[in-house]
Recover the amino acids of this structure.
């Protein structure tokens, strides 16, 4: 097989959509708007997992069934994808997920000591959830805020470099609700709604897709010829 | 060598608290580059970027213009922006998406016009919650302003831009893994060739994947010209570049510097840049371009910040992130933590990477704990050699993507430069630095 006639990746027709029973109201409406932004519904799978976490705090089996039905795959495929990603929790987590980065820049800034303190003061190891369900502690890989080491995120929002003392205050504020205005509960990722759909001329987009499909078919045919020759 | 005072190409607005708003953007020349681009043909816009010799800012340093020209033979259908910034100690795109989202969007629309694509996806790592909100808000404003969407500024050109959140996986910074993720799948890199995105990208269609910083340079290139950009820097490394400085320095942060004109010494020590190492300590080692890169000792401190210069010295400028370790740093511990990172983030497709990273991490961990054996050093190098034969730089490829062959960098650097430190750990059963 020459490089000019590559094999196309396998393509499979999407399963017929089914009616959601778990995702509701605004979350379901936003899920449908999100799907409409992509040429293929499956591309919305991960954004929909985030939306499901916004509703439930974590990615429940019921939500995965709904997502599968919405994007045309099996629930197993949703789980198979979701389980690859650190931010998608297929087990319950606390109201707040506190992530302490211990990667190289943070390690040099005292992150290992901070994590040790966090484990002691919260009474849980990394990956654990406090008995009141308020906090899940995570040891994170680099969060790209290395000039404020050691870096801590709460529900994926940066809270700046922390010392053991400031960390305890942060946890107290999270428990009391003092940070609710700037740190929404775990699962709520993007509070800004998209205000527009797809605006480009549908006929032009369809024409572009048709040309691409034609090119793909020609390429696949060439590859098939190359394979049998 | 000196610290030059180049024009601030991508950080011009960072001094303003409201740098992320449309009002500030328009008050500081915002969307002028797009207007200039739309007044010319797509081919002319692409030629201007070619003239700038803009190297991709994601890590591999591939010329952006050439990436685009690979596509012009095909009906280009997608532009995907890689904002999955996850290389440890890299935090420049974090700054760009949070503090100047309109600049990114303007660059994206310029590129979309040059490539004549109708749909763009901006893939941002999910941990950028604020960045995702800022880019979405800016995008809403840009649509309302007529800079994105149908018939942009009355030019007849239309493009839609979609912000796509990732979900936490380092490997999705690899462009084919990113495309898999964008298709709603696990982030498994694709075999290439033949699956270069330019030929078979998103949904099997031709696709350009460019980094956030690469896109953010385009508005300036359109308003000032590719030649003005190419006049900055030196050799193949044109223009300015964002350097993320972290670790043991007084002023960690992101600095926009002219390529090649500044040295690592200046970046780390100049009062207006890194400000030196705290507590009057000395320099032990530094990583010149992300944790995938081999380390340098103090003897390389006078190297210029240029892609070819660093490559010739046996490492890479990579993602432009520099980690400084002072002389109280335990090299074993630092290398162990980096190895643990790769072990956690290996996608698991290829045996040398999946198994090798786990073995290396366990051996490094027991040495750091004081339970290592003297033969462990040879064992480590042997395992490294299995992942990337010869343990050279640039590394030999044994796996689908470059994650695997990058794993030995920190271990072989640490063993080569600080072998005595490993032996102390092993013989005395613990870390000399406590």
């Amino acid at each position: 097989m020459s490089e000019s006639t590559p094999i196309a990746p396998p393509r499979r027709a999407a399963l017929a959509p089914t009616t959601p029973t778990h995702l509701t109201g605004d979350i379901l409406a936003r899920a449908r708007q999100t799907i409409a932004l992509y040429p293929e519904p499956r591309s919305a799978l991960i954004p929909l997992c985030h939306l499901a976490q916004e509703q439930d705090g974590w990615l429940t089996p019921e939500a995965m069934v709904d997502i599968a039905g919405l994007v045309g795959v099996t629930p197993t495929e949703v789980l198979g994808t979701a389980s690859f990603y650190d931010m998608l929790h297929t087990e319950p987590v606390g109201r707040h997920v506190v992530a302490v980065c211990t990667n190289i820049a943070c390690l040099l800034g005292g992150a290992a000591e901070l994590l040790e303190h966090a484990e002691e003061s919260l009474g849980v190891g990394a990956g654990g959830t406090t008995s009141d369900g308020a906090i899940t502690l995570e040891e994170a890989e680099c969060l790209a805020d290395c000039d404020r080491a050691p870096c801590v995120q709460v529900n994926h929002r940066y809270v700046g470099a922390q010392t053991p003392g400031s960390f305890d205050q942060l946890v107290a504020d999270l428990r009391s609700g003092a940070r609710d205005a700037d740190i929404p509960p775990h699962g709520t990722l993007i509070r800004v709604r998209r205000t527009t759909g797809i605006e480009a001329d549908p006929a032009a987009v369809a024409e572009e897709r048709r040309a691409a499909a034609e090119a793909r078919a020609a390429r696949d045919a060439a590859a098939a010829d190359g394979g049998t020759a | 060598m000196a610290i030059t005072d180049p024009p601030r190409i991508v950080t011009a607005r960072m001094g303003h608290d409201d740098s992320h708003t449309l009002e500030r953007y328009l008050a500081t020349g915002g969307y002028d580059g797009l207007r200039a681009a739309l007044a010319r043909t797509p081919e002319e816009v692409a030629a201007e970027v070619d003239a700038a010799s803009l190297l991709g800012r994601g890590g591999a340093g591939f010329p952006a213009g050439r990436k685009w020209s690979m596509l012009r033979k095909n009906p280009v259908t997608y532009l995907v922006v890689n904002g999955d910034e996850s290389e440890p100690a890299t935090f420049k795109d974090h700054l760009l998406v949070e503090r100047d989202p309109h600049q990114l969007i303007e660059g994206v629309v310029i590129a979309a016009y040059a490539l004549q694509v109708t749909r763009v996806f901006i893939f941002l790592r999910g941990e950028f919650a604020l960045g995702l909100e800022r880019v979405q808000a800016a995008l809403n404003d840009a649509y309302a302003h007529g800079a994105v969407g149908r018939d942009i500024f009355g030019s007849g050109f239309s493009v839609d831009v979609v912000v796509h959140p990732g979900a936490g996986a380092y490997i999705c910074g690899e462009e084919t893994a990113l495309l898999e993720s964008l298709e709603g799948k696990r982030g498994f890199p694709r075999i290439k060739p033949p699956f270069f995105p330019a030929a078979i990208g998103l949904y099997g269609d031709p696709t350009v994947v460019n980094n956030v910083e690469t896109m953010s340079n385009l508005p300036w290139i359109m308003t000032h010209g590719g030649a003005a950009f190419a006049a900055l820097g030196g050799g193949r490394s044109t223009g300015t570049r964002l350097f993320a400085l972290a670790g043991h320095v007084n002023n960690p942060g992101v600095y926009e510097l002219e390529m090649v004109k500044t040295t690592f010494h200046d970046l780390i020590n100049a009062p207006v840049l890194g400000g030196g190492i705290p507590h009057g300590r000395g320099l032990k080692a530094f990583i010149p371009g992300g944790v995938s890169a081999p380390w340098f000792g103090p003897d390389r401190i006078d190297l210029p910040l240029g892609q070819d210069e660093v490559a010739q010295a046996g490492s890479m400028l990579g993602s432009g992130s520099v980690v400084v370790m002072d002389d109280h740093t335990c090299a074993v511990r630092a290398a162990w933590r980096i190895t643990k990172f790769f072990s956690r983030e290996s996608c698991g497709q290829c045996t040398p990477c999946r198994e090798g990273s786990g073995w290396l991490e366990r051996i490094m961990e027991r040495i750091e704990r004081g339970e290592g054996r003297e033969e462990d050093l040879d064992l480590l190098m042997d395992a490294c050699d299995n992942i990337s034969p010869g343990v050279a730089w640039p590394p030999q490829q044994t796996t689908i993507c470059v994650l695997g062959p990058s794993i030995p960098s920190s271990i072989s650097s640490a063993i080569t430069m600080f072998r005595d430190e490993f032996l102390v750990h092993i013989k005395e059963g613990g870390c000399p630095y406590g």
